[in-house]
VOC family protein (Luteimonas wenzhouensis), 135 residues
Amino acid sequence: MIDHIGLTVADYARSRAFYERALAPLGYRLVMELTPEQTGGSYHGGGFGDGKPDFWIGAGRDGQTPTTSMHVAFAANSRAAVDAFHAAALAAGARDNGAPGLRPDYHANYYGAFVIDPDGHNIEAVCHLPEDASR
C-alpha cells in the first residue's frame, strides 16, 4: 500500500492554488503545509487529503525543479465528480489531456478524465463504478 506520494513543482504558490481548485470536487483539501523554516532548508510544500495528507506538492529542495512528468490518478466516488474535477482543473489553468468519458480498453466501467498540471504532470480522476452505482 502506498501511504503518500509527492510531486516536485516549480512554483509552489501557483501549484497550491491549482490543486486547491482542481481537487476540491474530489473532496481533497490542503491539510498540512511545511515551510522552509520548519524543514531547515529551501523546501516549501503542502499535503492534500480528505483527512490525512497523502498527496504532496513541494518546491524542490535547493532549487530542484521537475525534470520528468509523473502520472497521478485520484479515485472519484462518481462520474459526476470526475466531470467536476476536469472542469475545475481546466478553470484553474490545466490543459486538457482527455475529456471525461469511458475508457473501455481499461475495463467496462473505467470512467476517467485527464489534465496536464502547471508543471506538465498528467493528473487523472477516475471512477470504477457502473453509471447507475456512481450517482
About this structure: The chain has three helices and eight strands. The longest helix spans residues 79-91.
